[in-house]
Amino acid sequence: MGNEQWARADGHARITQVAGDHITYATGAGPAPRALLGLPDAPPALVGRDGPAKELVGLLAEGGPPVVVVAGLAGVGKSALAVSTAHRAVELGWFGDRVFFLSLRGYAPDGGVSGPQAVQEMLRHLGVRDTDMPESPEGRVALYRAKLAAFAQAGQRVLIVADDAGAVGQVRDLVPAADTHRLLVTSRHRLVAPGFAGRVLPLDELAEEPAAELLADAVLRAWPDDPRPVREPEALAGIARRCGRLPLALAVAGAVLAGDPGLSAGELAQRLAEARSRLEALTFEEGGVPVGVRAAFDLSYARLPADQARIFRLLTVNPGPDCRTEYAGLLTGEGEDVRPKLAALVRASLLTEQPVGSGRWRMHDLLRLYALERGEECAEEDGREEVTDTFLASLVFDTEVAQEVLGVNSPGSSGPGLPSVAQALDWLDRERPMLVAAVGFAADSGRPDTAVMLADVLAPYLQLYGHGQERLLMARQVLAHVRTAGTPDDTGVALCDLGSALGQALHWPEAVERLTEALALLRETSHREGEGRALNLLGIAYGATNRFEEAREAHQGALDIFRELGVVHAQGTAWVGLADNLQYLGRTDEAIEAHRQGVLVMRVLGDRHREAGALRGLGSALWQAGEREESLAVLEEALAILRALGNRTRMGWTLNAIASSLLSTGSSREVRPRLEEALGLFRAAGDRHGEGTVLVNLGVLHQLEGHWTQALEAHERACALLDVVEDQAAAVRALAGALGGLGRFAEAEEAFERAAAGFAAAGDVQREAKCRQEAADARELARRPRRWWHRFTR
Questions:
Q1: Residue 24: other Cβ atoms inside 10 A
Q2: 47-73 exposure pattern, b = at least 16 Cβ within 10 A, e = fewer
Q3: Which residue in 160, 312, 567, 743 is a FRET match for 302, CA 20 to 30 A apart?
């Protein structure tokens, strides 16, 4: 008789003795297979994410934090980054096959996977059957942690990727107790809560080049031989910009192009150009279900509490690229209490503070369009019209205060309750994009009077502080609305404003057309002051286009009208314009006297900005008359005024004028610091024209010092920056001189001829003839080299 054998069966197992014990499990009762390395496939390409991917890999390495949260706007590519990085960690051998993936569906309408459900799912991945699960949530958490502890004791690291979490509660119990393991979470929220210590890695939209590359890649994966990416790179770049460089939007646009091979990239770019229909255009039907940006944003918006949703909607009343905290408080009625709610929107990836701590809040472009749609739907509920009126009235008032402090048309104001000059200028500089946009916004929203009022108080700052392109944009917007709804006088004044702005932007031919139209209209309506202003501005435009006698007559006519009306300030501007023109005509003594009249008027009226401008013109005329010592003293006086006013653009031009005067004597003394300061001012302001003009003088300085190679480099950069015909011709002539100084006479001849053609196009006969002669000299020197350098130093 054999040995007695005993066995015990637990649960639903039964024992069958066949030459020993064999345990057979009932269906669903034994140890479950473990779902090791349960990652989705890595994305085909992770474009433009080298920096975040490298940072995330570093955080998953040993010594990193136990929890990392990749957070960002819906569709920004969080899951792609997390899954791709998890695959990279596997390739590095850090986690073996112990990598688990959970889809939490945190933004699904039903609330997605709960925290206890997530723990239960992880236990299943780890091989625990449902029948063996502890009954209580606490017991399941304890078992989960015990499983991870066992891995840690065995020296085995575990990576858990919890995708699309909507709240800390979904992942709190998944946090590994041992520092050796990693929990990688993706969420639209920056998951932050007491007792939850996760490292947040915010993910932003792509840069421009990677965005276009991702779009092209989406097309080429469907059609490898598709010619559109190569044939239409600029159109693809335009699509990428209008998609806000958001990967989801780019994927949808790519699907639209792939789904219609006959659709050109240019046509799609044109569809997306209309902001109002852009979200609709970025929708793709998949199985009868619309997939796209709006649907993704809907899920985030639905999670917002009512007060945050209202703030989200009302922020779009601000028309600028960002919104300061004070204006957010005004728009929403929250006042100083608004910041915590703005911060909540940041945590939800529906807003960003850029830079952090600046109090300036920005929405992604596509998200802003979505918020605007929701805002218009809830306009009555939110009191949107009343909020808009209050906001625009505040902008007009704040701009009036800033202009009063700066003294753009009168003596500057100061005193209790008023900002300093520096504070007023800082506010205008920071809010300038929003203020300019507010003019068009006011007109488009049926408030043309407010648009004109804001434009009137803003224009002098834009003019005097060198923001010509924004002034031009604003002037075109105002004219478009005044033509349809204003009186003939209003239209004439708006045409004058546009003509002045065109001149500031150096668009002189169009300036002459608009001002000629304004003059005819204002004469027809007997608007004498407007007629005088149109004449004065026409005089400036005529002078800029070398129509000097017509310019003199226009300025004199303006001066006569202003004297007749007794408008003293306008007389000062007419004197300055007349003086400049007299100087061009070679009537230097008369020009000096006219400049002195202009300086006197502005000084008496306390208009420091225009006094400085008149002084600069006087300095130029005095130098032309040979009064060099007084000329430099006058220019220095103008520079001191501009420094006090913080007018960096006009400081740059005055510094350049002083340097030009000194260079004309053949002396380089004190020139370099002046030019370097002017160059820095223009570069900081993004003023290409000013930078190019200074570089011409810097090149001349290099020539005087015998540094021909540096001179050539400066002149080449100047030619690339200057696009006004006459200024471009002057830069090419200076370049020709540097080429001659280097003994490259054939190239110098060609450059002199190009300069001559430029002067001819500008109507400058004298400088055209001079360049033709210099080209002939260079041609002669190319045949018979001799002592030549003195010919090319100016």
A1: 11
A2: bbbeebbeebbebbeeeeebbbbbbbb
A3: 160
Residue 120 in contact with residue 134, Cβ under 8 Å?
A: no
What is the torsion angle, in degrees rounded to the nearest 10, for the CA atoms of residue 624, residue 629, residue 630 and residue 636?
100
pLDDT number for residue 790:
46
Record the tokens describing residue 709, joined without a space.
């190679």
User: What is the C-alpha to C-alpha distance for residues 704 and 610, in angstroms, rounded to an integer?
Assistant: 34
| 8 A C-beta contact, residue 498 and residue 475 | yes
Q: How far apart are CA 245 and CA 76, in angstroms?
A: 9
pLDDT (tens digit per residue) in 334-373? 998 999 999 999 999 999 999 999 999 999 999 999 999 9
- Paired residues of 202 in beta bridges: 71
Task: Say whether pLDDT at 107 is over 80.
Answer: yes
What is the token pair recorded at 211?
């965005």
Q: Are 701 and 665 in contact (CB under 8 A)?
A: no
Q: Given this model, what pLDDT does residue 36 score?
A: 56
* CB 111, CB 236: distance < 8 Å: no
What is the chain's length?
794
For 361, the token pair is: 């809040």
What are 285's two structure tokens? 């039907």
Cα 234 from Cα 230, distance rounded (Å):
10
| Per-residue exposure over 338-371, b if at least 16 CB sit within 10 Å of its own CB, e if not | beebbebbbbbbbbbbeeeeeebbbbbbbbbbbb
Whole-number Å distance between alpha carbons of 780 and 761:
26
Q: Burial, 789: exposed, middle or buried (Cβ in 10 Å; 0-12, 13-18, 19+)?
A: middle
Assigned token pair, 134: 């502890």
Q: What is the pLDDT of residues 174-211, one digit of tens each?
A: 999 878 999 999 999 999 999 898 899 999 999 999 99
pLDDT 10s digits, 408-462:
877 888 888 899 999 999 999 999 999 999 999 999 999 999 999 999 999 999 9
Q: What is the DSSP string of 29-61?
A: -SPPPP-TT-PPPPPS--TT-HHHHHHHHHHHS
Greatest CA span in the chain, whole angstroms? 140
CA distance 205 to 43: 17
Q: Is the dihedral of CA 620, 680, 437, 399 positive or negative?
A: negative
The DSSP 8-state label assigned to residue 296 in this structure reads H
Query: What is the rounded average pLDDT of the residues 287-298?
Result: 84
User: Is residue 729 classed exposed, middle or buried when 0-12, 13-18 and 19+ CB atoms within 10 A define those classes?
Assistant: buried
One-letter amino acid of 91: E
pLDDT of residue 288: 66
Q: What are phi and psi of 292, to 5 degrees?
A: 170, -165
Is the bond leading into 355 cis (omega within 30 degrees of zero)?
Answer: yes
Cα first-last separation, the chain: 123
User: pLDDT band at residue 93, thresholds of 50, 70 and 90?
Assistant: very high
- Residue 688, pLDDT score: 92
Residue 280: φ, ψ to 5°: -65, -40
> 459 φ, ψ to 5°?
-55, -45
Q: φ, ψ for residue 100 (rounded to 5)?
A: -125, 145
- Beta strands at 360-362 and 352-353: parallel, antiparallel or unpaired: antiparallel
Beta bridge partners of 193: 196
Phi then psi dihedrals of residue 770, to 5 deg: -60, -45
CA dihedral angle for residue 76, residue 80, residue 83, residue 88, rounded to 10 degrees: -110
CA distance 108 to 117: 15
CA 70 to chain centre: 25
Round to whole Å and give the CA distance between 683 and 405.
27
Q: Which parts of 319-393 are beta strand (E)?
A: 323-324, 352-353, 360-362
pLDDT score of 25: 32
Specify the DSSP element, H or E, that contains 658. Answer: helix 648-664
pLDDT higher than 50, residue 793: no
